[in-house]
Amino acid sequence: EFRGKLARSMGDLEDARRYFRLAIKADPSVEAHVNGHLAEVELEDEKPTQALQLLEKSITQRPEIPRFYFLMGISQKAIGNETEALGFLNRCVILDPGHRKAWKQIGLQLRKLSRPSEALMALQRYLRYKPADIDVVRIVATLMESMQIFNGAVSIYRTAYAAKAILADRDAFLIGRILYGAGRFEEAELWLKKCVHLNSYAWEAFHYL
After folding, report:
1. What is the DSSP letter of 178?
2. In angstroms, rounded to a whole number, what is the distance separating the alpha carbons of residues 72 and 56?
3. How far is CA 133 from CA 119, 202, 208, in A?
4. Contact yes or no for 150/131 (Cβ under 8 A)
5. What is the pTM for the complete model shown?
6. N or C: which end of the chain has fewer CB within 10 A?
7. DSSP for 67-127, written as a single string
8. What is d(CA 188, CA 180) in angstroms, rounded to the nearest whole number?
9. Cα 193 to chain center, whole Å?
10. Can you tell me the distance from the alpha carbon of 174 to that of 180, in angstroms, rounded to the nearest whole number?
């Protein structure tokens, strides 16, 4: 099993498959667990259908393991089954409420399914664990802005900055726009000017200035 993980980390997916299968042959009791690793290999190799088949076995053998449902959700998403993916991801967080990767994927799926309020709740849950994930911070701030939760959006950025997130010109623009929407015009002007300082071609920022 260790050799399988090592091979996968080095990008040798064929060797990873071989070592994982040897691990199962040597000790059939680890089949469910190792099939999870094999499913990750298949996902990395862009073969989600094969991953699904492996995970179905794993879930049948060990239905209490959250990781299998997470991987099943990712596999379902990869073949375009959005609703099914969400169901498996939700099952994952029922079993493990602290599974941050699942919360992130749930939020992204809900956003894709045009369920912004639920998406916001899930992504905020994820940010409890990874507050400096700037891509998710941008999504959450934009969702809050669309719901006119302006101060909440600014607070999300403040927390991200405190967690050492690196803010780019697009973040300065978004913060400025949010502050402008909140009627905090002087603060908005400072951030919009910062955006222009970082990117002199930020025409959208000039629009507000």
Report:
1. H
2. 8
3. 16, 23, 27
4. no
5. 0.89
6. C
7. HHHHHHHHHHHHTT-HHHHHHHHHHHHHH-TT-HHHHHHHHHHHHHTT-HHHHHHHHHHHH
8. 5
9. 31
10. 10
Instruction: Report how far apart, in Å, the C-alpha atoms of 205 and of each of 33, 158, 169, 200, 201 are.
Output: 51, 20, 10, 9, 9
| Cβ proximity of 157 and 175 under 8 Å | yes
Distances (CA, A) of 101 to 39, 78, 175: 17, 16, 26
The Cα 42–Cα 47 span in angstroms is 5
Q: What is the DSSP letter of 149?
A: -
By C-alpha distance, which of 137, 141, 113 is closest to 127? Answer: 137
Burial (0-12, 13-18, 19+ Cβ within 10 Å), 48: buried
CA dist 187 and 172 (Å) reads: 11
Q: Are residues 1 and 37 in contact, defined by beta-carbon separation less than 8 angstroms? A: yes
* pLDDT digit string, tens, across residues 48-67: 999 999 999 999 999 999 99
The CA distance from 52 to 98, in Å, is 24
Q: What is the pLDDT of residues 181-209, one digit of tens each?
A: 999 999 999 999 999 999 988 888 888 87
Q: How far apart are CA 76 and CA 88, in angstroms?
A: 9
Tell me, what DSSP letter sits at residue 131?
Answer: T
Q: Give the pair of three-digit tokens for residue 67.
A: 């990781």
C-alpha 190/C-alpha 19 separation (Å) is 57
Measure the CA–CA gap between 166 and 172, rounded to whole angstroms.
Answer: 11
